[in-house]
Amino acid sequence: MTAxxxxxxxxxxxxxxxxxxxxxxLKIKADWLRDHISELPHQKYGQNxxxxxxxxxxxxxxxxxxVPARAQxxxxxxxxxxxxxxxxxxxVRSLATSxxxxxRARRAVAQT
Length: 112
What we know:
Layout: H1 19-26, H2 30-35, H3 54-63, H4 69-76
């Protein structure tokens, strides 16, 4: 038996989630996790219930992601054959083009 390392885990802060917390994060039922625990990445300490870190959850999502054949073709296409990617336009305006916000129009106050 080879020693298992958690190479997929890049957590900098340990935060283990129980079944209910992990299920809530994945937006699934906790029973599904319990039913499939032997097929899923998790941590087990003695007789305690299994726990999941966020890296485990990302791996579970990747294991269950469905990618249509056409999307897989695009992902596997060589860079020169891939569809051109539009240039990103920044949503952040530069300070030079910034203008003060216009205030609300003042209502004329009726004088009595």
